[in-house]
Amino acid sequence: METKVYNNTSGPVVSVLITAYNREAFLAEAISSVLASSYQHLEIIIVDDASKDNTAAIAKSFGANDQRIKVFVNEQNLGDYPNRNKAASYATGEYLMYVDSDDLIYKESIGKAVSLMMANPKANFGTYYRLPATEPFVWDAATALRKHFLEAPYLMIGPGGIIIRREYFNFIGGFPEKYGPANDMYFNLKAARYSDTLMIPFEFHFIRKHAGQEINNRFSYLYNNYCYNRDSFNELDLPLDASTILLLHKKNKRRFVVNLCKYFSKSFNISKTLYAVKQASFTPKDAIEGIFH
Question: Are 13 and 45 in contact (CB under 8 A)?
Answer without folding.
Answer: no
